Amino acid sequence: MLMQTQTQAETDPVTRPTPVLALDGITKTFPGVRALSEVSLNLYPGEVTALIGENGAGKSTMVKILTGIYQPTEGRILVDGEETRFPTAQDAADAGITAIHQETVLFDELSVAENIFLGHAPRTRWGLLDWAEIHRRSSEILTGIGAEIDPATRLRDLGIASKHMVAIARALSIDARVVVMDEPTAALSHKEIEELYELVDQLKAQGKAILFISHKFDEIFRIADNYTVFRDGQYVGEGRIEDTDNDALVKLMVGREVAHIFPERTPELGDEVLAVENYCHPTEFDGVGFSLRRGEILGFYGLVGAGRSEVMQSLFGITRPSSGRIRIDGEAREIASPADAVGAGIVYVPEDRGQQGAITAMPIFQNVTLPSLGRTSRSGFIRLAEEFKLARTYCERLDLRAASLDTDVGNLSGGNQQKVVIAKWLATQPKVIILDEPTKGIDIGSKAAVHDFMAELAGQGLAVIMVSSEIPEVLGMSDRVIVMREGRMVAELGGDEMTPETLVRHAAGIRES
Amino acid sequence: MSTSSTHHIPDTLVSPLAKRLKSWESLLLVVAVAIFIANCFASPYFLNAWNLSDATFNFTEKAMIAFAMALLIIAGDIDLSVASIIALASTAMGAAVQAGVGTPGLVAIGLATGLAAGAFNGVLVTRLALPSIVVTIGTMSLFRGIAYIVLGDQAYRGYPESFAFFGQGYVFWVISFEFVLFAVLAVIYGVLLHKTNFGRSVYAIGNNPTGALFSGIRVQRVRFVLFLLTGLMSGVAAICLTSRLGSTRPSIGFGWELEVVTMVVLGGVSILGGSGSIPGVVIAAFVMGMVTFGLGLLNVPGIVMSIVIGALLIGVIALPRLWSKLRWGA
C-alpha cells in the first residue's frame, strides 16, 4: 500500500495534458463476481500506456468496456474530458477507439481487403461496395505499416504474423485516436516484434494514444511511456515508466495478502512414480523433463500460452510428442491415447470442463463410471447397480451436491461439475492426477474443498500435478514448482525459493537486478 | 470431503415407469396404434394374417440397416452409402452366381462386401478425419457406380433355389424368415446399445466427442466399428432383398438411404447425435411399414406415399415442439 501512494504522488496532474480517453471509477460486476472495482485508466495523445496485471486482474474486462462490448456497472468514461457512453461497439469505434485483440477475429475465407474494411467499407454513389477504393486504401494502410501483403490475397493463405498485420491494418482503417493492443506480440517472432515496435512509434508520432497490454516486462520498458497496474480487479497504481523499475512493478502486480487459507500439510514423499524425459513437440514445447514422487504436489506456473497445458495433454495422450520418454514406476510406457494414459495410471482434469472434462448432457453416474466401465460391467454388459455404487462412493467422498446421481452434469454448478470430473478419475484409482487450473471459475467454497481434497489425495500417496496461473494457489499448494516460459522449463523452485517475485520473474523472463 | 456428515445422494428421483410414459417411444406407439386402427377401417383386406405378413417386407430389410444406422447417428455420424452398398453387394453376389458359387458362398460374399464397404467408409472418416456425410455421399456414387459399370442395363439372374429362402422363406406359418431376422437383430442391437459398455461409449461420443476422448474412450475405434456394422447390415439387407427379388439390377434398393434415415429419425434418434433408442426405431419401422401398406391397399400411387411418409416425419417431429410451445406460451 505504501507503493501505491508513492506512485500516485509521482503523477503530477498539473503537467499532464488532458487524456484523450479517461476511465474513472469503473466498476463492473457479473452475477456473483466483481471483475473490476473502481479502477481508473488514463490514455494520453502520442503516448503508450502499459496496462499491467496478472491473469484475471481485469485487464481484458477493461478493454471490453472501453471498446463498448461491456457496459460498466458504475463509473464514467471521458473522451477529451467530456463524459460519454459506449452503448455498442460501434459507438466506441465512432469515438475513434479501436482494439487489436488477443485472439483476433478475422475471416479466413475473405480477402485481406475485405477483412480490413468489413463493416465500414467505402460505398459508391449507388450504395454498392467501392472495390477500387477498398483495395486502394487497403494497400495504402498495409504499406504504411510496412506489411508487403496484396490486399486481394485470401486471409487463409497468410501466416500468423501477416494475419496480425491485417488485424492491425483493420484497426487503423478506422480513423482511430486510441489504439488498444491486447498482448499483440504473443504470436509474433522476434523480428516481427521489432517491426511492431516501429509501428507503435509511428502511431505515437501521429499523436494516437496507445493502450498496450503485455505480460512481458522487456516489452513494457522498451515501448511504454506510462503504466497502470491492476490487481484482482482493483487499481493499484500508475506512473511514468522512467520513474520505475522491474522490482517495483512486480511488487505492485503480486503484492497482495494471501486471502485464502490453504490446507496445512507435511508432505511425505514416497518413491518416484513418474519420470518424464526430454519431452518435445514441434511447436508447443521443448525439452521438458521432470520427476514426480508419490505424495507430492508439483505445481506448474507460467503465463497463458507457456505450453503447460500442452505438456500435460501430451502426457495424457491427446497430442503425441515428437520425442521423449515416460517411465511410470520405473517402467517405460508408450502413451498414444488417453485410454493408454488411464491404463498407465495417469489421469487429467482439464481446464475446459464443459467441453473436455465432462459430458454435460449425460447424467452424473454415467460420467463418473465412463472410464471405469470395465470394472462395473461383466463381460462388456452394463450392471447399473454396480455403476451407481461406484459413482455414489466417489461422489460422496467429494461431497458432491446434487439432487440425484441421475441428474445431468450440465445442471450442476461449476464447482460440482469439477467434483464430478475428479470423482470420475479417482474411480479409476490412478497413480498420477494432473489438474489443469483446477479452481478456475468456481466459487470460493468449492475452491477450498478442491484444495483440501488435493491435500488429502497427496496424503494418501497419490502424485499430483497442478497447473495453475494463480500465484497464491501455486504457492499455497505445491511442494515444488516448475516455471515454464515459451514452451520451456525455465526454473524448478522449492522451499524458500518459492516466492511470488521469483515466479513472476521466471515466467516473464526478467533477469535478476 | 472429510467432513463427518456425509451428504447422501439418491440414485434417481424419476421412476423408470414415469420416464418411459413420457418418452418419445410412447408417443410413437400411440401413433402406431392409431394407424393400425385407421387401416382396419380403411380396407377390409388389412386384417388378414397373410396380408399383414406381406406388409412386413415393406420395412424388414430397411429396418435391419436402420438399427446399425441408429447407433451411427447417435454417435454423431451418418452413412448415406447404405443403399449403394446393397447394390454393390448384390452385384458381387450376382457375379459369383455366374461363376457357379453356391448359397453359403453367396451369403459370405454378400456379408464380406458389406463389411469391406463399411471398412472403406470407416477408414476415410476416422483415419483421414473427413466428415462422414461428405465421405458417404462420395461412396454412395462410387459403390453404385461400380454396380452400373459391371451390369450396365443387364441383370444377374439364376440364383440357386436354396438362396430364395432368405427373402421368400417362412419359418412358421405366416412368420417369414426376414421377420424373424428383423426381430433377432432388434434384440441384438437393443442390447448392444442399451446394455453394453460399447453402447454407453456410443452415447458419450455422440454427446461430446472431445469429452469422450478425454474420458479415455477409444473414440476412433468405436466410430470405425459403427461403420463396419452399418456396412455389414447393408450386406445382410442385400442378401434378403436379392433373394426376395431373385435378380440383381444396378438400381436395386435405389433411394433406400433416405428411407432408412427417415426411419431412424422418426424413431426418435436425434439427427445431431447423442440420444435415441432401438425400441423407438422398431416402432418407427412398424409405423412406416403400416402406412405404406395401408396406402397400397387403397391403391394410392407410390409418389403420394412418399409425400405421406414425409408429412408423417415432419408431423411427428414437430408435434411435441408445437405442444410444448403452446403449453409454455413461448
TrEMBL record, chain A:
Keyword list, A-Z: ATP-binding, Cell membrane, Membrane, Nucleotide-binding, Repeat, Sugar transport, Translocase, Transport
Subcellular location: Cell membrane
Claim: Ligase is one of the keywords in the record: no
CC per GO annotation: plasma membrane
InterPro entries listed in its UniProt record: AAA+_ATPase (IPR003593), ABC_carbohydrate_import_ATPase (IPR050107), ABC_transporter-like_ATP-bd (IPR003439), ABC_transporter-like_CS (IPR017871), P-loop_NTPase (IPR027417)
Membrane topology, record value: Peripheral membrane protein
Residue ranges occupied by any ABC transporter domain in the UniProt entry: 21-257, 269-511
SUPFAM superfamilies: P-loop containing nucleoside triphosphate hydrolases
Keyword Transmembrane: no
Matching PROSITE patterns: ABC_TRANSPORTER_1, ABC_TRANSPORTER_2
GO molecular function, one term: ATP binding
Name listed for the protein in its UniProt record: Putative atp-binding abc transporter protein
TrEMBL record, chain B:
Keyword Cell membrane belongs to the record: yes
Function: Part of the ABC transporter complex LsrABCD involved in autoinducer 2 (AI-2) import. Probably responsible for the translocation of the substrate across the membrane.
Record's GO cellular component terms: plasma membrane
Membrane topology: Multi-pass membrane protein
Residue stretches spanning the membrane: 27-47, 67-89, 95-116, 128-150, 170-192, 224-246, 252-273, 303-323
Assembly and binders: The complex is composed of two ATP-binding proteins (LsrA), two transmembrane proteins (LsrC and LsrD) and a solute-binding protein (LsrB).
UniProt-recorded name of the protein: Autoinducer 2 import system permease protein LsrD
Keyword NAD recorded: no
Lineage start: Bacteria, Pseudomonadati, Pseudomonadota, Alphaproteobacteria, Rhodobacterales
UniProt main location, coarse: membrane
Keywords tagged on the record: Cell inner membrane, Cell membrane, Membrane, Transmembrane, Transmembrane helix, Transport
A GO term, aspect molecular function: transmembrane transporter activity
Localization per Swiss-Prot or TrEMBL: Cell membrane
